Amino acid sequence: MRQGVKRWHFVAAGVFGGVIAVELLLTLLAANSLPLFSRDAAWIGLGFWLLVGLPASVAFLLGARLLQALADRFAPVEPEESGRGLRMLAVAGVFIWVGMAILLGIWNRADGSDFIPRHLATLAVLIGMPWAFRPATERRSAGRVPALVGLAIVVALSGATVAGLNWQWPSAAEPSQIARNVPVHPGRVILVGIDGLCTETLERFEESGGSSDLTWLRERGLIAPLATIEPTRSPVVWTTIATGREPEDHGVRDFTSWSSPRLHQPIVTIPKRQGAFYWLSLARDLQWLTRRPASSLDVRTPSLWEITASHDCPVDVVGWWCTWPAQAVYGRLVSDKFYFWRDAARTSEAQDEPQHVTFPDQLEPALREMRRPPTSMSREEILAFLNITPEDADELSGRPYTPHDLLSELPLAYTMDETHYAIARRFIEDAPPRALQFFYFRGVDVVSHAAMKYSNLYPESEVGADDRERFGEVVTQYYRYTFRKLRHLVESAGDDAKVLVVSDHGFEQLGPSEFGHDHAPEGVMMLIPASPEKTLTTQASIFDVTPTLLWLAGHPIADDMPGRPLTELFDLPAGADPEPARIASHGMRDRERLLRSSEADETDAEMLEVLRGLGYIQ
User: Fold this and answer.
1) Strands (E), 452-493
2) Which pLDDT value is given to residue 322?
3) pLDDT reported for residue 538
4) Distance (Å, whole) CA 275 – CA 60
């Protein structure tokens, strides 16, 4: 009989411990997302716990109670021995919890003050477990805590812990409470983003002769390397530039995000590590989670155009990553989906034009004529980049799209940049004198991915002689084209404008004929105009962009922004305070006010095909 008792208890303990481990894994993965997921509103984190953590805990406890009942039915033991076994399992569970919490902390490079509070909800389950499920004979003993009280302790401690995490995050300060400086630059301030502009390629470009437009820009400004972050995924880096915050704070962590149809909120911080993919796939199959491209709905901290916009300082935004669906701003916003042909070319099915691509919506018809389809790239424009016959150039527009194929990518990149340049010129011409304007151009990155291996700027790249003959000047010519357009923007803005040009990363040679930006090669920063005697005291990084522009416009810099204003590059006007005004935080976005369109789900599915075609997702 005693051997049967040991056997049943060994089986029960093994299954019991396995359920503990599974419940802990699920809850820890959920809790690992909470600090970012829950910054939107207090009820979101609690709702996520009720949706995931509490059902898992209840299932775990009910299963444990069933095993306990089976063990008592077929192999009864003394109450003291049974209670001792449960307490030992609870202690083992606590050790499992501590070990997994430490591993997850190392896993996500978090300090103790960050990851330990996240997992207190799981610890509360383990603390209440011995009380909630003592054997029946022991529950009837005098002075014992009833099972329902123990279960109530589990739920109360878990809910209070998770909800408490939500309530501690800063909210946006009232405008009347924000101290402001005298603007360092009272005129127009323009931020130009050029994706993929590379420090090393720029040096090789100048050594090979450069261009008169780049010489003109260099004579009037400063050009320096710009440090970036890893991974160099465009939505992540450009949102970091626009908000001045770490990806862990602003919420955009990849080209795609996960959302919960039941919560109607994005969950973009579930870790992509070993083991997580299985659970995410299971949740997707069960329709608990859905995958979609990163969008404006994922950005959790306010961007530059949201912080700085005011009645005396309206904003213009063109083409920036994660601006669709277009959100309300005090000014004009042309989202990254305004030019939709690039996305349409990468999908296998016909794609309608997305909705809410501008703010206000009425802006889209007024700008529609400026949107160039890829088929509009003329023979002369094609031959400016490619060394091919005129007949081959004429056939280019009808060529089926192939991912990473230069002949497919060039017309899309060029006409997309042409579209954004045309809109930027119009906005510069009709904007008030004290506007802040943000323009983004993607063509250099697209062309570099497809053509850098053929470039004469990198003769060490191992490619065929015929391909180098046809495509060897594409990168060089696209750099010339970009600097020519950039000079036109600077000239249009006038002498009173300050223009800051930044790129998110450079390129590096990863193999004999392979180029990419896996290890965060430096990008480029330009400031035009800039005094010749002004130099950087330390290397600039993408985190410095937002603090610098806030300081220039007279807005306070938040303490939760890791960057610094590049004050050494500017002359202070009379009355300006060299010490920037500061504020604890500009808070989080009010996501209840974010625009949601009925077409978003459809467009998301099409964009996933785009990202798969690029090779960014599987």
Assistant:
1) none
2) 94
3) 93
4) 20
Lookup result for tokens 């669906």: 325
Residue 120 has which token pair?
């207190």
Greatest CA separation found in the chain? 96
Element (H, E) at 483: helix 474-493
Q: Which two tokens stand for residue 83?
A: 């209670």
Contacts of 100-103 with C-beta under 8 Å, sequence gap 24+, read 100/24, 100/25, 100/28, 101/28
* CA–CA distance, 591 with 297 (Å, rounded to integer): 8
Q: Are 521 and 229 in contact (CB under 8 A)?
A: no
Q: Which of 326, 270, 322, 331 is nearest to 301 (CA)?
A: 322
pLDDT-based confidence at residue 72 (cuts at 50, 70, 90)? low
Give the angle subtended at the CA of 339 by the CAs of 336 and 344, to the nearest 5°.
105
Q: Which of 178, 184, 180 is nearest to 575 (CA)?
A: 184
Q: Lowest mean pLDDT: which of 235-244, 312-321, 349-358, 501-510? A: 349-358
Q: Which of 330, 334, 259 is nearest to 290 (CA)?
A: 259
pTM: 0.73
Tell me the C-alpha distance between 412 and 475, whole Å: 15
Q: In the structure encoding, which two tokens stand for residue 494, read together? A: 């006038």
Q: What percent of the chain has a predicted confidence (pLDDT) above 70?
A: 57
β pairing state of 508-511 and 514-516: antiparallel
Query: Can you say how many angstroms the Cα of residue 67 is from the centroid of all Cα atoms in its chain?
Result: 45
Among 46-55, 489-498, 504-513, name the one with the lowest average pLDDT.
46-55
Cα–Cα dist 246/237, whole Å: 9
Rg (C-alpha) for the chain, rounded Å, is 29
Helix (H, G, I), strand (E, B) or coil at 349: coil
Bond preceding residue 360 cis, omega within 30 of 0: yes
> Which of the given ranges, 66-75, 177-186, 305-314, has the highest pLDDT on average?
305-314
| Pairwise CA distance, residues 393 & 379, whole Å | 6
Q: Which residue type is seen at 150?
A: G
